[in-house]
Amino acid sequence: MNKQKISRYFYFLFLFALSFSAHAHSGAGSMHGFADGFIHPWLGIDHLLAMSAVGLWAALMGGRSLWQLPVAFLTAMAAGVGLSFAGIEHQGAEAWVAFSLLALGLILFINRRLSTPFASALVGLFALGHGYLHAAEIGVESNAFSYALGFLLATALLHGVGIAAGLSGPAVRRVARAGFALSCTLTGAMLLAGI
Fold first, then answer.
1. Which of 45, 115, 139, 161 has its CA 20 to 30 A from that of 16?
2. What is the pLDDT along the chain (195 residues), one digit of tens a residue?
């Protein structure tokens, strides 16, 4: 696959993601079970980009980071769900998620290797906000456990998308890193600015 085809693929993926709600946390409607939980991360560009970017970053770092970053994200995301289920209010969660996108974009852009424990802690902090907001979308009549399982599985799959891009050949890796760096940075900045 040449660079032009790879670029078109990521451009199409980005446009496809933008065709959905630019922000998955409208508060409209309610989520009910596994299927709703599974689809939620795919419909919000903030989650789609962040979760794929974590997988890409893990692959670019390599070694233990390949599995530790996704595990840290999933674990902290589950903790964020717990905070939301416990009724703990967090008015800044939307900004937290937007900041996580901006930070991930800049990390991918700079492409500097961080220690695995530090990178794991960082993605864990980002994941708390994502988990909190996912849980906040659950309706009163929902099966919260099934919903949470659905979005945790989708998150793991999105990490896999990023990992696959990062483990591909050098051309794919370069295009993926540049595309996710730009997409995450711009989307995070726009969400923080309220655009």
1. 139
2. 555 665 555 555 554 444 444 444 444 445 578 888 899 889 889 999 999 999 999 999 999 999 999 999 999 999 999 898 888 887 888 899 999 999 999 999 998 889 999 999 999 999 999 999 888 877 555 688 888 899 999 999 999 999 999 999 899 999 999 999 999 999 999 999 986
CA of residue 8 relative to chain centroid, distance:
22
Q: Residue 18 is encoded by which pair of tokens?
A: 């933008």
Residues spanned by the domain of 103? 41-193
Residue 91 lies in a domain: yes
Residues 152 and 177: their CA atoms lie apart, in Å, by 24
Number of domains in the chain: 1
Query: Is 173 within a domain?
Result: yes
